[in-house]
Design brief:
Length: 187
């Protein structure tokens, strides 16, 4: 089995970071392969060799960095796992390259079907671990019976994203336990 040249992987990482930075700065409409290439210091042919269109590049960038940033939910009670997830999401949404891209993707999703499809698929996949932890907590009696895990997940995430997108304040990660208590209560 051949290993990939480390220079290719380094170049790929630089391009993916440049893509997110460009998206967050200029938005989806002004985002071009040429502008990402300039930001990354590579030729546009280098980008086209790996990604055929801008949504493929954006999707790969989001997926790659999302996987790098995942919260560890392998240990702890469901409430502890959920608190780690909520705290992590609040930190990412308040100040990260992803945070700067959210408005661009919302705008792009309203204008371009391919962005809409990607963004909604990505959000559903990213939300699933949170829903699974809530379902686990219900099954183990850590959260009230009868709660819809998907609806509870949307309520929790909705509070975080609402604060980021609709107010002058971001959600304080230190209030993760309080948010969980407000939405899920005690068993």
């Amino acid at each position: 089995m051949m290993r990939e040249d480390p220079r290719i992987e380094r170049s790929r990482q630089v391009i993916l970071r440049a893509a997110l930075a460009e998206l967050g700065e200029v938005g989806y409409g002004a985002f071009t392969i040429e502008s990402v290439a300039a930001r990354a210091g590579v030729g546009k042919s280098t980008i086209y060799r790996h990604w055929r269109e801008k949504i493929a590049l954006i999707a790969d960038a989001f997926q790659t960095f999302h996987e790098e940033e995942l919260s560890d939910v392998s240990t702890g009670s469901p409430r502890e796992k959920l608190e780690r997830i909520v705290r992590h999401v609040a930190e990412i949404v308040s100040d990260s390259i992803f945070s700067k891209c959210i408005p661009a993707l919302i705008d792009g999703a309203a204008r371009a079907p391919e962005v809409h499809a990607f963004y909604h698929r990505f959000q559903a996949e990213a939300r699933q671990p949170l829903i699974d932890v809530i379902a686990e907590g219900i099954a183990l009696g850590d959260f009230r019976a009868g709660i819809d895990p998907a609806l509870a997940g949307v309520a929790i995430l909705g509070a975080i994203f609402y604060r980021r997108l609709m107010t002058n304040e971001t959600f304080d990660p230190d209030r993760a336990a309080e948010l969980i208590e407000t939405v899920l209560g005690k068993p």
